[in-house]
Amino acid sequence: MEFIDLEAQRCRLETRIDDAIAAVMHHGQFIMGPEVATFEESLSEYTGVPHVISCANGTDALVLALRALGTGAGDQVLVPSFTFAATAEAVALVGATPVFVDVDEQTFNMSSDTVRAALVAYPTAVGAVAVDLFGRPAPYADLRDVLGGRWLIADAAQSIGARHGDTMVGALADVTTTSFFPAKPLGCYGDGGAVLTTRADVASVVRSLRVHGKGTHKYDNERIGYNSRLDTIQAAILLPKLEILEDEMERRQQIATLYSEGLADVVGVPTVEVGVRSAWAQYTIRAESRDEIATLLRGRDVPTAVYYPRPLHLQTAYKDFPRASPTLKVAEELSEIVLSLPMHPYLDEPDQRVIIDAVRDAVRR
Ligand SMILES: *Cc1c(COP(=O)(O)O)cnc(C)c1O
Questions:
Q1: Per-residue exposure over 111-134, b if at least 16 CB sit within 10 Å of its own CB, e if not
Q2: Whose CA is nearest to atom 1 of ligand 1?
């Protein structure tokens, strides 16, 4: 059994990905070839966000967004501690200071309560990066209220395809970043990322920054930028994958529902408010006995993963950055009890029954 079965998706797309790669080999425009613009337009249409600027990876997307918002030395930026390191890393890379904030136990995300508490301690923070952990959108409307005039970036590396009501992720915040790392809900066959924004001013700075801070042409440099473009081959691979994303989202939804029906009485299961669709990048349960569960599952050939075994504020590289309070209790607790089960759109019901039975057997021991 696979934790994420990328091969099943490749089989479904038959030769479409091979053909797309062959087409790029044939035209030879490996950097900023026509597929890049076509993919940006397609993602713009899918999410309803006017400006989509692809780039080299999801970490760069965060750096580009932070830079475009003018973030730099001396700025404090609120970030959740329970996330992948890149969220805080990008803040540090632009010279600003990440301030670690606790998360909500049910949603795994920053909440208006945890951000409000952080702003009492750090009222001068200039903005926040909210993460849609495991695919579930953060509460953007509430966060925007609490943040007042400060900016808000959505780190949607795990949540492309999710939505709140009729509004797709990408359109929930002024500036959203995402990743096309292979295991993400929309993944390519290498590294890739994008910035999505409703703001034309931000879009224009991001477009400049991704090509060395270019001005009106390539050899006119207005600012210090980066080399951060999405490879044409990766854009070509993403196009057929984007076409089936909506169907994959519905499948993930059904799989999550079956998991929750089978497990809600024995472990903590992830819940999503009515009207919200998670992208279900991960299906993550909470159980005191998560290590025992993982061991029993491994014995039955069921892979699991712990995202994340240690919150960022306790990691060597990040422990000296400020935190909203001396202990971030929920982030610390979650790191001890979370366990992610196999989750991908091609997980079939018989395999899911094996996983559910195994978790139930492990809990009953
Ligand atoms: C994967 C991920 C990133 C970074 O994306 P890369 O493409 O690997 O650089 C950033 N934030 C979160 C929450 C992620 O899961």
A1: bbebbbbbbeebeebbbbbbbbbb
A2: 157
Helix runs in the chain, H state only:
6-12, 16-27, 34-47, 58-68, 86-93, 112-121, 140-147, 200-209, 232-243, 245-263, 290-299, 329-337, 349-364
Indicate if ligand 1 lies below 6 Å from the C-beta of 181. Answer: yes
Query: Do 4 and 303 meet the contact criterion of CB atoms below 8 Å apart?
Result: no
The pLDDT, as a whole number, for residue 216 is: 87
Pair of tokens at residue 63: 């750096």
* Phi, psi of 276, rounded to the nearest 5 degrees: -105, 135
One-letter amino acid at 167 equals T
- The three-state secondary structure class of 45 is helix
Low-confidence ranges of the chain (pLDDT < 50): none
349-364 vs 245-263: helix crossing angle, rounded to 10: 30
CA-closest candidate to residue 283, choices 311, 304, 310: 304
What type of residue sits at position 249? Answer: M
3-state helix, strand, coil in the chain (%, to 5): 40, 15, 40
- Amino acid found at 236: A
Is pTM beyond 0.90 here?
yes
Q: Indicate the top mutation candidate among 63, 159, 179, 184 to test ligand 1's pocket, ranked by most ligand atoms within 8 A of CB.
A: 179
> Looking at ligand 1, which atom is closest to the CA of residue 87?
11
Single-letter residue type at 17: I
- pLDDT, position 301: 96
Query: Could you tell me how far CA 190 lies from the centroid of its own chain?
Result: 16
The pLDDT score that the predictor gives to residue 204 is 97
Place of tokens 């930026």: 77
CA gap 323, 80 in Å, rounded? 10
